[in-house]
Amino acid sequence: MLQFFVKIASLLVVAGAVMAPSRAQVAISGQMPRGAIISPRAKYEPAGDKVYHGASLPETWDENGLRRQLQTYKAAAGKKLSVVTWFASAYEVGRMTSWRQTYAASLARVKRSGAISLIKFSTQDYVYNKTRRAADLKQIAAGGWDDYFKDAAATVRDFGGPVFISINHEMNGTWYPFSEAYPNSGVKASDFVAAWRRIVTVFRQTGAKNVAFVWSPNVPDVGNVPFYKYYPGDAYTDWIGISFYSANDMNDMDTIYRTYAAKKPFFVTEWATAPEKSRYNPRYVGDAKWIKQFFAALETRYPRVKAISWFNWDKDDGNYLLTRVPEQSRAYAQDIAAPRYLDQSSGGGGGGNTVEVARLDVPSREIRLREVTPVQRPRVEAPRVEAPRAQAPRRERIRLQIVPLTR
Asked: In this predicted structure, what is the pLDDT of residue 40?
């Protein structure tokens, strides 16, 4: 009799293995069968199916400007933001920045609004086309900029609240000098990886444990250097971030999602529609319908997307304002009203809990090697950089906000 039950049990195990979907199928479809692998929740990852509701706002440098934009956005979306995205850089109009003097106030200002900051930090001047100033990635990797990033890390550490930081986003494009595909940049993807790891190490050694680092490539790859060449590795990355605009079909996220969704939550750090982007999508369904498709894809196709941030800017390269098309903002408001989209930062959580995560098959050999093989940092005799101590006048800070951000 015992042998009979053992045989039946073994048959049930085999049948379950045959009928169960593959790990890759589970991850891309978003289905969560019973017995899905349990994985630790990432730093500040919301529990269950919750998603941070965020937006990138250009006027964050003074209290009135931020308050005005938050009110305008809430009026259009019908819901408060839990994340405010803003930009920081190593240089501003040719002058080296100090996080303590330049960005500490913005962190506090966003916190008072009830939101978490996502800081898009760039090692180049945000008007690079005018000043040609940028921190050299090889020098960063060699420790030449350690003092600068100690100032940054101490500023964030002393702030105390949760902070998302994305370093040199859209590096797999051709439009930033920290990209290998940028004309005559002299940069390799390995330089990007080495600099990222050095910055993260400095933050950790300085005690800035309240930072979640978001690695944010563009979707899709532009140029001949794919996104995975720039991946710093699991140990140096908390979230996977992407830029995803109306030039994309919904399935364009599949490749990068398959690669990392089993290991990291996703943050759509920039998304929006703009006529200047939509014209590159031959199957574009219109602004409002594209918005509806996006939200539907998050629920059914990409369950590991746990934060989104609309790029609410009107720039030279496109008008991305949510209110540009009334039908678009209405469609957005209808979907963002769902309880799963958090309107306050308290809806997040620490990394001590667990969440069901669909695991993928073993990543490709190339990607695995990128994660386990240490980057050979170039030997560079670089001067140490001291962050400036004097605070720029308030009048200058307010004036700088109107300079267009070079993307």
From this structure: 80
